[in-house]
């Protein structure tokens, strides 16, 4: 689980550093944390930011009968 989180965090940092996309409306936010999904390839199913600042992200396949692999991408901002 920690390895998956480390990979996910590294991916987020890399994508955030290389993406020059304009910031749109966040999919979820709480306090000063915001989660954005404005990417051409990749998405998340849902997310929630708790009052304590814990972010819960759910990923799911875009169209399971065609491709059961969940491709995900999101950007964090505070």
Describe the protein's architecture and organization.
The chain is α+β, with helices and mostly antiparallel strands and 78 residues long. The chain has one domain. It contains one helix and five strands; from the N terminus they run αβββββ. The protein has one helix spanning 2-18, and strands spanning 28-30, 33-36, 46-49, 55-58, 75-77. A hairpin with a 2-residue loop joins β1 and β2. The mean pLDDT is 76.
Provide the domain count.
1
The H/E string reads: HEEEEE
Shape: globular
Which blocks of ≥5 consecutive residues have pLDDT under 50?
none
Using only C-alpha atoms, the radius of gyration works out to 13 Å
Biggest sheet descriptor: 3 strands, antiparallel
- How many β strands by DSSP? 5
Which structural class matches the secondary elements?
A: alpha+beta
Percent of residues in helices comes to 10-25%
Taking the alpha carbons of the first and last residues, their distance comes to 25 Å
Strand order of the largest sheet: 1-2-5
> Helix count?
1
Strand content: 15-25%
Rounded mean pLDDT is 76
Give structural attributes.
3-stranded antiparallel β-sheet; alpha+beta; 22% helix; 1 helix; 5 strands; 78 residues
Topology, please?
Blueprint: H1 2-18, E1 28-30, E2 33-36, E3 46-49, E4 55-58, E5 75-77
Antiparallel strand pairs: 1-2, 2-5, 3-4
Question: What's the short story on this structure?
Answer:
By secondary structure, this protein is α+β, with helices and mostly antiparallel strands. It is built from 1 helix and 5 strands; from the N terminus they run αβββββ. It has one domain (2-77).
